[in-house]
Amino acid sequence: MKKILVTGGDGQLGRSLKQRLKEKPLANYSFTFTDVQELDILDEIFVKTYFFSNKFDYVINCAAYTAVDKAETDIEMAEKLNADAVKFLAKASASQKATFIHISTDYVFSGEESTPRKEDDPVAPLGIYGKTKLNGEILAQYYNPKTYIIRTAWLYSPFGNNFVKTMLKLFKEKEEINVINDQIGSPTNALDLADAILTIIQNDIGAYGIYNFSNEGECSWYQFSEEIKKISKSKIKINPIPTSDYPTPAKRPQYSLLDKTKIKNTFGISIPEWKDSLKELLNR
Q1: What whole-number distance in Å separates Cα of residue 279 and Cα of residue 272?
Q2: Burial letters for 106-142: b for 16+ Cβ neighbours within 10 Å, e otherwise?
Q3: 52 burial via Cβ count (<10 Å: 0-12, 13-18, 19+)
Q4: Using an 8 Å Cβ cutoff, are 119 and 262 in contact?
């Protein structure tokens, strides 16, 4: 029986993993989901004690500080959750020779490129969130050689706060909204990312390192919102606007497409198109 710890169990990805396991339980795998109430990953002594009492084969870290704009001023907490806590978990998992799976972000790139980013492309985060997530990647790999890092982008799910849920809420409340049309990426259904993580665990060949995962295809936030509108049959008017019309404390990558060739070839993962995945989720 393989034992797996999932931290950040109450977040979008943690809850998506729970959902997938409920739909299709994995034989011979035992999952323990924790959030801050059960395991405070900011407390190194607590983490050590928890691992002393519990033995795991895999540790999946879904916990993160993801308030991108708030991170610009809340630097200490972003660094603690996105880097220090990752170090504690990497060290603790390494002490048990457990494999560490850590979720990262497209924000480690500058977004000034015009071709999909590969895993070994140069990193140049624009803001505190991206910098702290990059620090987490470095610490994870340094303290546990058996680490998989999965960079993802534009994550949404039936759970928590995300772009899709915000749009559906606005569609009910407003007659007209403005959405940015000059930032390009690929939305990621967290349920698909959960599937990919479970596939890696079941087909683990020890090919540790960094991998990219998002749904296939590309769009702007405006095109994403138009597709949500189409599927949900809303009558709202959506106006495309440039980033310059919507200033935010943190600078966003203008282009954040990720090249998924490596994860597909290594683990035989087939990735759905973002429109198909969005439609499936909204129809659920």
Answers
A1: 11
A2: bbbbbbebeebbebeeebebbbbbbbbbbbbbebbbe
A3: exposed
A4: yes
Please, what is the angle between helix 274-283 and helix 163-173, to 10°?
Answer: 60
Q: What's the whole-number mean pLDDT along residues 207-228?
A: 98
**Own/partner pairs for 172-178, CB < 8 Å, 24+ apart?**
174/236, 175/236, 175/237, 176/236, 176/237, 176/238, 176/239, 177/225, 177/236, 177/237, 177/238, 177/239, 178/238, 178/239, 178/240, 178/241, 178/245, 178/246
The strand pair at 188-189 and 155-156 is best described as: parallel
What would the pLDDT profile of 31-46 be if each residue is shown by its tens digit?
Answer: 999 999 999 999 999 9
- Catalytic (active-site) positions: 129
Do 231 and 170 meet the contact criterion of CB atoms below 8 Å apart?
no
With 0-12 / 13-18 / 19 or more C-beta atoms within 10 angstroms meaning exposed / middle / buried, residue 173 is exposed
Residue 158's closest CA among 197, 189, 194?
189
- The answer to whether 64 touches 82, Cβ cutoff 8 Å, is yes
Distance in angstroms (rounded) separating the CA atoms of residues 267 and 202? 10
Residue 33 pairs with which residues in a beta bridge? Answer: 6
**Alpha-carbon separation of residue 20 from 111, 145, 213, 249 (angstroms):** 32, 28, 17, 35
Give me the pLDDT at residue 284, please: 82
Average pLDDT in the chain: 96
